Amino acid sequence: RAALAALGLLLHAWDARGHPATAKRPNFVVMFADDMGFGDMSCNGHPTISTPSLDRMAAEGMRFTQWYSGFHVCSPSRASMLTGRLPVRSGCAGRSWTGGVFANIAKGGLPSNETTFANILRDQGYATLAVGKWHLGHQPQFLPTSHGFDEYLGIPYSVDMGHSAWESSLRHKLQVALPLMHNTTVIEQPVDLNTLEPRYVQKVSDFVRANAQAAKPFMVYLAWSHVHVPDFVAPPFCNRSLRGRFGDAVEEMDSHIGEVMSVLKESGVDDNTLVFFTSDNGPWLIQRLAGGSSGPFFEGKSTTWEGGVRVPGIVRWPGKVAAGAVSK
């Protein structure tokens, strides 16, 4: 249901005949956190994690208290977000009745006949960019550039699915080194996780500035690698939160969200850009302190209880979405 609603937001700018509803077409920025629970934002009540950027976004837009992900684990929920379809219809729900995700040795991915919102927007003349975690197949035919995105920078699966300085156990050392990809090419392996999310922000910032200057409508799909284990954090954010490493990771992501929002304003496109933030599923509670919080809801990731699929949701569009609104 969440994915269908998100796709509806993206398509709201067109009338029934497929024509722009306004002369100036809006831009779209969709931000997707990884394993962030309903209770992990300070505006949703977390006592020791500070999220001023997300709090500001909520104060300037609408905060959803009943926003539901399309599934309770990564790959299916991402397929649902991108296509607006139930993940079982795209073949991305997993191998078992409890669901599953694409591994780092997977041969499959999101089928080429699935239509993403990037496909739709690019057909309308939009510039499209995907940044961050993909997790819908790492073979070339399944990557973002085969699903409507002009460009991609990111890790093709979860940050714990390969060896890195932050995952140095024997189990991870036996895995392939974690890759950073640009389009279909590996450009760094293993990726330096200490600098990863700032590079995401730089790529998005350059893209926004270039298209704003060219007066070309754009869409950004920014799927943060935070806040999935191993809770990697850049040095400036280490030991900043009372919630420990997990809190540090949330606060780093929140700071980078603030940077993206600042770039929209500096580029003069803030008032004409719909920004949407949510999480792919609930917190990974079995990771204990390395996982997040579902707040008042029972259970988390990998379950169909409320905590597994009820996640943060914020939409901001100045002049179109009433500031300070709360959808209950």
In terms of structural class, how would the helical and strand content be classed?
Answer: alpha/beta
Q: What is the overall silhouette? A: globular
The pLDDT mean sits at 92
Q: Biggest sheet: strands, sense, closure?
A: 10 strands, mixed
**How helix-rich are the residues, as a percent range?**
25-40%
What is the ordering of alpha helices and beta strands?
HEHEHHEEHEEHEHEHEE
What low-confidence regions span 5 or more consecutive residues with pLDDT below 50? none
* Order of the strands making up the biggest sheet: 6-5-4-3-7-1-8-9-2-10
Proportion of residues in β-strands: 5-15%
Write down how many β-strands occur, each being a DSSP E stretch of 2 or more residues.
10
Number of helices: 8
Instruction: Report how far apart the termini are.
Output: 15 Å
Radius of gyration in whole Å, from Cα? 18 Å
Give short descriptive properties of this protein.
single chain, 328 residues, alpha/beta, ten-stranded mixed β-sheet, 8 helices, 10 strands, 26% helix, 14% strand
Topology:
Elements: H1 2-11, E1 27-33, H2 52-60, E2 62-64, H3 74-83, H4 117-123, E3 127-132, E4 151-154, H5 170-173, E5 180-182, E6 185-188, H6 196-213, E7 218-223, H7 244-266, E8 273-279, H8 306-309, E9 313-316, E10 325-327
Parallel strand pairs: 1-7, 1-8, 2-10, 3-4, 3-7
Antiparallel strand pairs: 2-9, 4-5, 5-6, 8-9
Helix pairs in contact: 1-3, 6-7
